[in-house]
Amino acid sequence: MSVRQVLDEMDYGSASENDHEARLWLDSYRRRFGHMIGGQWVYSRQTFDAFAPATGENLGRLSKATAGDIDEAVNAANAAYPKWRGLSDHQRARHLYALARAIQKHSRLFATLESLDNGKPIRESRDIDIPLVARHFYYHAGYAQIRNREFPNYRPVGVVAQIIPWNFPLLMLAWKVAPALAMGNTVVLKAAEDTSLSAILFAQICQQAGLPPGVFNLLLGDGKTGSALVQHTNIQKVAFTGSTAVGREIRQVLAGSGKRLSLELGGKSPYLVFEDADIDSAVEGLVDAIWFNQGQVCCAGSRLLIQESIAEQFIRKLKRRMSRLLIGNSLDKNIDIGAVVSATQLDRIKNMVSAGVAEGAELWQPKGDMPESGCFYPPTLLTSVEPAHSIAQEEIFGPVLIVMAFRTPAEAVELANNTRYGLAANIWTENINEAMDVAAQIKAGTIWINSANTFDASVGFGGYRESGFGREGGPEGLVEYLERNVHLAGQPFEGKENRKRLPSLGTKIDRTPKQYIGGKQTRPDGGYSTLYRDAAGNQIAELPKGNRKDIRNAVEAARAARSWPAMTGHQRAQILFYLAENLEYRRDEFVRLLVCLSGQPVSRAESEFSLALSRLFACAAYTDKFEGSVHLPDKNKVALAMKEPLGVIGIMAPEESPLLGLLSTTFSAAAMGNRVVLVPSETYALVATHLYQVFDTSDIPAGVFNIVCGPRQELARTLAGHGDVDGIWCWETETICKEVEYLASENMKRSWLSNGNYRNWHDDEQSSGIEFFEHAVNIKNIWVPYGV
Ligand code: NDP
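ok -> structure tokens follow
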């Protein structure tokens, strides 16, 4: 027999992981499990069962949290909070370090339990999931130690509710719990109904490692438990990972509550292979991209986009590789593909594939052996797929790859972005120039160049668009669990009430300004205007009454202003400095206007104007300084954390400090490369319309600033619900902010809401700087390999 024959015919026997310790652990609880509340196991009368999806074996009976259990857990977290928050950074760091060590010491038990409960291959839980879990606790132990030094002006958020899915049960726990605890918050975590066991073991380890009772609380239960938890009044933040549908529901339920929210949702990530790629590596990478964890990965490379010239060759090689994937029991160390998590998920996958075939896709599956029972689904390839097919748009969350072809890089980018999601993308090419060019154009939070599904605690992870907002991991992930040390609630400085009381200087202004759209003054679409009065009640102008159409036109103009984000920070800075210079020439005009409109003393108006100039300078200064960073997550890999503008931001300008508030918000957004659609305060709209000439003389590209005057509530609704607006900043009443937040959930645009709280715009500390820029950017991490 030749060596070739031996290799071709070589068969893998099974090499089963010994699950003795895991079974002893299950039996030590007599296979009955409760919640961990305030450091005690608490059992409920209602229960549900945990099953091993690979064999159907019943692994134990779990308590299902009642409303009383949820209350108790939230109370325990609140009770533990002051002391936990009050620990020194070093004391808290030692707790996290102890957890990291304990996880490592029990790593094999964690891995075996995870694979039994979830169905994933032991190779993955042992070599990927659990080491990453420990890494997250070590990394965050480090950040706990240096919290005050790194984030001197921040405090913890408070009690955080965290909800995790079943695809990476312990890893998702680590991504959420480690940063929350490190920053001084306490936690109530709800594990996924299908995979709670590793969270229970983690709770036990917290107890053994001496974590103070109530700092980490675990609830077991289903979606209803999650829903009741997020609505509890005594939590300050919700962090959720799961489907976009549930994420949207949570956002809508929380709208107006003032609770912080981060959402890590679904994806339909593209896997682009260009004709100059190393094809064998790209095929191998695809195995990691879509067959890792049976494709039940939010960032799975589930859409293969292949350059037409190599499509045939690539598919041939891919089919050959797929034929060699071994499917079997999750505890078998030789297998590549384990069981999907549950019979429900298996049915969901089957139904979606059938729907795809009914739409015209061609199905291919390798002939290999399949286990006779258990929740298994073979690796599957769907070709002849059209972009509009449901399988090209919806997350399948199974071992199913769809294929589409492209001819040019431009077409590849268009196809890649043809999705409502934006979690990740993979780019395969040997041309670094092309890779970086395409990476910059893809709207996704993580881009892997010539690699797939690599993660690290130092590299933030999270989505664009309907893949959610907020980041997990890296410094940006920590900010999700911190609150700025500024007290914003208070009275307006020059609100409407003051306006009536203060005397007017009686200056006369007679104007009929228009809207400002795409660099031009345009009449309002509706053809209506409203009378406008000064502080003394004199009629001084007629202002356009904007409507939905005006907003749509403004958004279109803003979208078209692509040159602005393409500029370097330096170029944008020059324009903003120049704008400040041109504004300076009009000092007297604006001071007069401020006095006339608000009735404020001349000295205060002068100080507002001077401060506005200084803010403009500060925004210009930051254009090329609020930059990204570089991480070194692995040997031969760098991750470039790039700060990208959101795109088009709708801004409902603040009412108070009319010029200063308007400029502080609008120019922070624009400085980061965003285009703005601004709705000025109705009371002080004339301040905004007086800026038109300043814009016109300052080299600002048309469409960067667009101003629509009119009824605020109606215009806010249109902006919030607009599918082409990427973010909305709203300084408005609680009622309007609540409505805006609800509508913003439609396309999952980012929001920044005042919820009726006023800022002191004269105070640099609370009204300028990093906080503003953070709301204006998305962080995209681009993983770049080298030397391999
Ligand atoms: P869900 O979004 O329903 O579940 C995620 C988590 O949220 C679970 O803990 C779940 O509890 C809980 N939950 C469910 N409903 C609510 C609610 N109304 N309020 C608060 N919490 C809730 O995902 P599924 O498990 O049902 O999976 C459905 C699909 O979602 C998958 O096929 C996949 O497409 C996608 N998905 C995406 C994930 C991602 O990482 N992006 C992860 C998981 C799923 P319980 O598990 O007990 O029902």
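The longest strand covers residues 637-645.
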